[in-house]
Hints:
Distance between the termini: 38 Å
Number of domains: 1
Bound molecules: S-adenosylmethionine
CATH topology: Rossmann fold
Strand order of the largest sheet: 3-2-1-4-5-7-6
Amino acid sequence: MKTTKLKKKIVKKVFDKVHDKYDFMNDIMSLGSHRLWKKEFIKIINPKPSEIIIDMASGTGDISKLISNKYSNQNILRMDPNYLMLKKGSNNFKKNEKIVEICASAENIPLKDNLVDTYAISFGIRNAYDTQKALEEAFRITKKGGKFICLEFFKINRPILKELYKIYSNTIPTIGEIIVGDRKPYEYLTSSIEKFYTQDEFKNMLEKSKFKNVNYINLMAGVVSIHTAWKI
Ligand SMILES: C[S@@+](CC[C@H](N)C(=O)[O-])C[C@H]1O[C@@H](n2cnc3c(N)ncnc32)[C@H](O)[C@@H]1O
């Protein structure tokens, strides 16, 4: 089986398994920090009421929730290939007609070119089965003058913190086993962080996809980073 197909299958299985306890586990695994990171992410997105935003890899919809809390009238496209994850978050948006759900993946977006003002992806790009293709699709659907913003786990740049983080992340599969009853999805999640690109490699990939003014900031010494880029 080709590696992209295999990854697609593994990732689907992981999120099918964890969807029900996803939000709870997110709080446990990040010790609540994901809420602070996401707040910072929204500040950088800086949504404007007239804009169309895509919340790619939306999962249970944390990012859409934070944006619509700011502007209840915001046009948001919640996209995710995992139907169970998408549906788990649906209840939060039932009364909001401005939020549209689409079950599709980042590599094959069923939208026309130059549509969105902001392409936002939070803890999703690492799961794409073809990162470069996903970035090219992001570029295609973003309007000229629009921005790309990505929140993701990356590589820690301080040796002691790196070791401490390693010890902590080794405990995550055990926590998953206790709470969800299966350690495998959490082994995938921790190993996918190790296998993913460095901040600079990802920056280069964005440039290769024709984005300009690509930059990133590290939060917590690079545990997570926020990349920003523009379609000019
Ligand atoms: C860790 S969750 C992130 C959810 C949410 N954005 C957040 O920040 O809490 C990752 C999401 O990526 C989705 N995903 C997996 N493969 C994907 C792909 N190829 N394209 C887009 N999203 C994908 C999963 O289904 C899952 O919902």
